[in-house]
Write a structure and sequence with these properties.
This protein is an alpha/beta fold. The chain folds into 2 domains: 199 residues, Alpha-Beta Complex (inorganic pyrophosphatase (n-terminal core)), CATH 3.90.1640.10; 124 residues, Diaminopimelate Epimerase, Chain A, domain 1. It is 37% helix and 18% strand. The strands form 2 sheets. Strands 6-7-8-9-11-10 form a 6-stranded mixed sheet. Strands 2-1-3-4-5 form a 5-stranded parallel sheet. Strand 1, helix 2 and strand 2 form a beta-alpha-beta unit. The structure holds guanosine-5'-monophosphate and manganese (II) ion (2 copies). Guanosine-5'-monophosphate binds next to strand 10 and strand 11.
Length: 330
């Protein structure tokens, strides 16, 4: 029923109306790729008035600077106040829409495409599949139901989304279905090796030095998380400034940290302002970090989640340890 409602809304409102697409603040590969892939699909249908945007700082991380469809992006401040159709991508909670959350009330209709188990159920029509590896899996289904063919550019957006959210097809949700989708995307002619180099294997020299500083102060707590082990570190705005790096380079920092064999749970605490920190949580399986994040007003998936913390890194970690002991004592 939800699918047919979504298809009907797109068919009725998109052709003559203004369609506003939004993804979450500090967009990652799935947020941008799902949104721009669908935007390009709408454009191929002949839809004329399309805007794509996201809240917060208007900056596309360098790894995504060559993504197809970026010409459809506008700054949040320029986004239509009362679009006919609002479509939201990879957003688990209204809070992740920042100043754009008011569009939910002002748009004629809205559709949410997402895959977070913690999705709060906001918005009009909800296409939320917590078993999907990425929001782009949901996007592919909607494009199919709209009979929009996948061209190479749409496929590239969806491939970036799928490969980032699955950690290059390594994470938990990497099902046969995911590989079938990847095969279909690659068959359009895109170049996986070239895309992967751009997205995962390219970073400024200064970012490597920044990672070196931040990794050097990591701490291992083998007794934490009910004896499963915790490893964590933090990065400040001063670290970024010293190495002249943009905040998004820290998104990749959780990867070396979560590889520590002695810890099931890994945490990176990233300063966003004085006393305010974006916290990334990862689990290897036994601990549900989305429960930890949700308890701290964040969200995410069982094995990858996040929240906003306050105070010092030690304050933030104290709240994480408290939640972990609640989780692991059940
Ligand atoms: P990351 O650590 O890569 O930023 O995020 C991991 C997962 O947690 C993603 O699925 C992301 O959507 C979710 N997440 C991260 N930070 C927050 C947050 O502050 N609030 C919510 N609701 N989800 C978050
Ligand atoms: Mn995301
Ligand atoms: Mn996602």
């Amino acid at each position: 029923a939800e699918w047919s409602a979504a298809v009907r809304m797109v068919r009725e409102l998109a052709p003559g109306g203004r369609v506003l697409l939004i993804c979450h603040v500090n967009p990652d590969g799935d947020a941008l790729g799902s949104m721009l892939g669908f935007a390009l699909g709408l454009r191929s249908l002949g839809v004329a008035d399309i805007q794509a945007t996201f809240p917060g700082e208007f900056e596309v991380p360098a790894p995504f600077a060559a993504m197809p469809g970026l010409d459809l992006l506008v700054a949040a401040g320029e986004a239509w106040a009362d679009p006919d159709l609002l479509i939201i991508f990879d957003v688990a909670a209204e809070s992740r829409l920042g100043a754009l959350a008011d569009r939910l009330d002002r748009a004629r209709e809205s559709i949410v495409l997402d895959h977070h188990a913690s999705n709060t159920g906001f918005g009009g029509v909800q296409l939320v599949d917590p078993h999907a590896a990425a929001t782009s899996v949901v996007v592919e289904q909607l494009l199919d139901r709209l009979d929009i063919p996948l061209d190479r550019e749409i496929a590239e957006c969806l491939y970036i989304a799928l490969s980032t959210d699955t950690g290059s097809f390594r994470f938990d949700m990497t099902t046969p279905r995911v590989h079938e989708m990847a095969a279909r995307l690659i068959a359009t002619g895109l170049r996986p090796a070239e895309i992967s180099r751009r997205i995962f294997d390219s970073r400024p020299f200064g970012a490597m030095k920044l990672f070196a500083d931040v990794l050097a102060r990591a701490e291992l707590e083998p007794e934490a998380a009910g004896g499963l082990g915790l490893v964590w570190t933090y990065a400040t705005l001063d670290d970024l400034a010293r190495h002249e790096q943009r905040p998004y380079v820290l998104d990749a920092l959780i990867d070396p940290v979560r590889c520590v064999a002695e810890a099931d749970v890994s945490v990176v605490v990233k300063q966003v302002a004085e006393g305010e920190w974006a916290v990334s949580l990862r689990s290897k399986g036994a601990v549900d970090v989305s429960a930890v994040a949700v308890a701290l007003r964040g969200g995410g998936h069982r094995l990858a989640a996040g929240f906003t913390g306050y105070g010092t890194p030690s304050d933030v970690m104290a709240t994480v340890r408290d939640q972990l002991s609640l989780q692991t004592s059940i």
